[in-house]
Design goal:
Two copies of one chain form a homodimer. Chain A contains five helices and two strands; from the N terminus they run H-H-E-E-H-H-H. The first copy, chain A, is mainly alpha-helical. The first copy, chain A, has a two-stranded antiparallel ribbon. In chain A, strand 1 and strand 2 form a beta hairpin. Chains A and B meet through helix 3, helix 4 and helix 5 of A and helix 3, helix 4 and helix 5 of B. The first copy, chain A, binds a DNA duplex through helix 2.
DNA sequence: CTCCAACCTGGAGCGCACTCCAGGTCAAGC
DNA sequence: GCTTGACCTGGAGTGCGCTCCAGGTTGGAG
């Protein structure tokens, strides 16, 4: 229950093999265990981190910031406040992002409604 | 009420001057009017298009697709169905995007809640 | 008429986040 | 032991959406 081949880790995390290697290379994922032959072995812990990275990535956090978070976690328990703050700050960004998305979605629906109030009317304000 | 200098168009649309020029260059914005000296003059119609582009961009539509939409609109009234379909299709993408964002936001809030149920507990599943 | 800030062009460069490649190694199944 | 598919490395390349630049032109204020 705690030793996954690269392909298995990729399957479970939804990241490509190249992305997993990339994340390790840039120091986002901490050094991953290896077999004597040098092949990666991912642990449940690594998988947990990947789930988090997916969450942060999907909500638009830049990699540099994720890396900062990961580094803080590696630095130990005394960085908990800073990590907490980092996530809270990110959450407010996400809230703003959600509001914008909702607003523009509403706008889009208006536009679509326009097409549904055709047929055979005059072109709309932006001729589109 | 219908002739804006580039800087004014930029201010009103929220796009940079470079972006406005870029949008014209790639054929997203139709050829913009010019003074005899060659300087751009944006119309209310152009501004309307920019509002739409902002909506589509903010909701994640790739430029290629926006360009397709704009081209269809230029092609005339008989493309209305296709434009309608394009927007409807995009709207479903946006809905999915919103669901994902909400889901990952909830996940993020859980993570934050974890930090709030400290202090001085054991590290969480992904040690973060 | 002069000045200078705003504008023009074509094209190069950038930042992000991967993605692909060549050339070689590892390890499980037969 | 051999085969073969999964894996390794460093580094180059990609796609997107701008952004910046040099070198020149325009046009309204004074």
């Amino acid at each position: 229950m705690s030793g996954y081949a690269p392909s298995e880790a990729a399957r479970r995390s939804g990241f490509s093999l190249d992305t997993l290697r990339y994340y390790e290379k840039i120091g986002l994922l901490a050094d991953v265990e290896r077999t004597t032959g040098g092949q990666r072995v991912f642990t449940d812990d690594d998988l947990g981190w990947l789930v988090l990275f997916r969450c942060l990535r999907d909500t638009g956090m830049p990699i540099a910031q994720m890396r900062r978070y990961a580094q803080l976690a590696r630095d130990g328990e005394h960085t908990a406040d800073e990590r907490h703050e980092l996530l809270r700050h990110h959450a407010t960004q996400v809230e703003e992002q959600m509001r914008l998305l909702q607003r523009q979605y509403d706008h889009l629906r208006d536009k679509i409604r326009f097409y549904e109030q055709l047929p055979a009317t005059a072109p709309d304000p932006e001729a589109g």
